[in-house]
Amino acid sequence: MSFESHSMTLKIWDHSTMEPTLESAITHISARANAPKEHVRVVRSGPNMFTVSVGEESHAGFTV
Which domain of life is it from (predicted)? Predict the structure, then answer.
């Protein structure tokens, strides 16, 4: 896991924990950036890797 100011990259090996792990990351980034959860996006950035970050309002991604 790595952190930047308003983003985080996660490598999730156990697929059964994917949804709760991503939900927790979305909540963390949202609180850290003082942004609504709707503005947090999740991008699959590789095998088992996900980047969670605050996106622009018009480019908001999906939440889990």
Answer: Bacteria
